Amino acid sequence: MYPSGFKVFIPQTLEEALEILEKYGEEAKVLAGGHSLIPMMRLRLVKPTYIVYIGKIPGLSYIREEGGVIRIGAMTTHNQIEESELLKAKNPLLSETASHIGDLQVRNMGTIGGSIAHADPAADYPAALAALDAEVVLRSKGGERVVKISDFIQGPYITDIKPSELLVEVRVPALTGAFGTSYQKLYFRAGDFAIVGVAALVELGEDGTFKKVRVGLTGVGEGPVRARGVEEELEGREASEEAVAKAAERAREGLNPPSDIRASSEYRLEMSVVLTRRALLQALARAKERQGK
């Protein structure tokens, strides 16, 4: 199927793009890598009158650390995130998560900003960003807003972004201390969206306890879910495999996963527990390795 007719704008500056969005509002859609918007247009699920292609705007692709925060430009590709030495050293959860997205062609074109703005409930990034307490930066002609990822993604394909705004940056912490991370994903074929995905962050205290635990899930709700019961069960406890196994059972708390042709709700619940345990165990092993250095 072919998309309905539309006009394309190719702004050369961020200011020009914001002016176009301010003028045309809900009639316009932003195009970055194209892996989310173009398929929806071909199916005529969205019918924008205007397309604003932001690929020519300089300064929207970067990964840098400032004051303990890693800032990632919205046009940074999945491949750049996967290969970033800064992220591998100070936030490997994002690099590992990016490696699970699509295939090489998709990772070379798709962008983190486009993926987050699309807000697919089975996407990979939201689980990791939830575990990292990430923030997104939204800019318009009227100024800038910083929004927590938990507030930004409001439901399937629904976000807090206004028609006049552009997502310009993602912010995650630069991790320090004895930390370990892991992303575990269940899928039919490599590159598929997640049936269930679990991101885990573990930080160990000097006394061998879980100082900090964060667990984010994708594919089990209308958006990313924090497994707060798991986190509460582990923080302050002795860091052991037995503790992880017990706590992982709480990953199912409050979940009401969908049933579809790929998996039943019951199966997703069980796999939420299994993948939470796997992610935490791998994160724990990596944290202990870092602690021992």
Name the features.
4-stranded antiparallel beta sheet, alpha+beta, 5-stranded antiparallel beta sheet, 293 residues, 14 strands
Descriptive account of the structure:
This protein is of the alpha+beta class and 293 residues long. The chain is built from twelve helices and 14 strands. The strands form four sheets. It has a five-stranded antiparallel beta sheet. Helix 10 packs antiparallel against helix 11 and helix 11 packs antiparallel against helix 12. The mean pLDDT is 94.
Main beta sheet: 5 strands, antiparallel
Radius of gyration: 19 Å
User: Which residues sit in consecutive blocks of at least 5 with pLDDT less than 50?
Assistant: none
- Per the principal axes of the C-alpha atoms, what is the gross shape? globular
- Give the strand line-up of the largest sheet: 4-5-10-6-7
Task: Break the fold down into its secondary structure elements and pairings.
Blueprint: E1 7-9, H1 14-24, E2 28-31, H2 37-42, E3 50-53, E4 63-66, E5 69-73, H3 78-83, H4 85-90, H5 92-98, H6 104-109, H7 112-118, H8 125-131, E6 135-140, E7 143-148, H9 149-152, E8 153-155, E9 158-159, E10 166-173, E11 178-186, E12 196-204, E13 210-218, E14 225-226, H10 228-234, H11 241-248, H12 265-291
Parallel strand pairs: 1-3, 2-3
Antiparallel strand pairs: 4-5, 5-10, 6-7, 6-10, 8-9, 11-12, 12-13, 13-14
